[in-house]
Amino acid sequence: MAPQTQYAGNGDVSLAYETFGDTAGGQPLLLIMGLDFQMIWWPDAFCQRLVACGFSVVRFDNRDTGLSTHFSSPARQSPWRALWGRTEPAYTSLDMLDDARAVMDAVGWSSANVMGGSMGAALAQAMALVHPERVRSLISCMGLPVDAGPLRTMAYIKFGIFPRLTRIKPGGTREAEIEALVSIFRAIASPGFPFPEEWAREAATISHDRSPRDPTSTQRQLAAGRAQKFPPLSSITAPTLVMSGEDDPLLRTRGGRDTAARIPHARFVSYPGMGHNLPEELWRDIIEEIRAVAGTPDRAL
Questions:
Q1: Which residue(s) pair with 112 in the sheet?
Q2: How far apart (Å, rounded) are the C-alpha atoms in residues 39 and 17?
Q3: For residue 44, what are the domain limits?
Q4: Which label site among 72, 107, 232, 270 has the fewest CB atoms less than 10 Å from its CB?
């Protein structure tokens, strides 16, 4: 049975979220999605496997994605301007952290294990820095250090993927928009594992039908990340796991390695063949790592 979408409020912002497992009894795990992607790109089956291992899981649409509140921009601008902090932000990362806290409050969690992927990894790190009392453990996946400036961030990016991404031109039909989402996911997915064609097409279809992709959200979410500076990662006290794909088409593994090196006692794990997603073939190992950092008792996987 598909999870039921519920809504939390942060001022004028409505945040769509879904739960897996018993939010009152399981080990709480909040999943934060990356740039432009909706929460449904955290696979249902992955969330259910986490529940089977003792977690209760909450995923949500970041503002400007999915069924959460969307914003607008005066005009579409280059995402690179936003990355360099040259775009007026519609909101900040602190606002996005308040969104995450509002979702936690809605399900009755005073604290949780917080796992973020890609941009969500930076938000998870920021949560551990700004609201440490809300973070039991930090799991940063496929991300970069949140305290890295634009120049250092650029050094972590693999620019060779962008010609491929820019060639993906969505058409005006529903089918073409869905195909474009599948193509984007294919471009960043794990080259060392079979591409999950059926699941990706299903996720792209659900994503489009929930809320068609708005390309201007990219610049707003990137601008939010440059709207303020954060304390150094060395001040994080939560138990931390950092995961990277050794064959990530988008980010260099050094981004994850440097993140872990800057956080006291963090564990760094990298996987050969893994790209900018979590391939099902690695879920067992990934969940074992999450369970270890969260201190969850062993259960059969």
A1: 135
A2: 8
A3: 6-294
A4: 72
Residue 130 confidence class, pLDDT cut points 50, 70, 90: very high
Distance CA 56, CA 30 (A): 9
In a domain, 100, yes or no: yes
Q: How many domains does the chain divide into? A: 1
- Dist. CA 251–CA 142, nearest whole Å: 8
How sure is the predictor about 74, in pLDDT bands with cuts at 50, 70 and 90?
A: low
Does residue 40 sit within a domain? yes
Q: What is the CATH number of the domain that holds 124?
A: 3.40.50.1820
Question: What secondary structure, in 3-state letters, does 45-101 show?
Answer: HHHHHHHHCCEEEEEECCCCCCCCCCCCCCCCCCHHHHHCCCCCCCCCHHHHHHHHH
- Residue 248 falls inside a structural domain: yes
Confidence of residue 223 (pLDDT cuts 50, 70, 90): confident
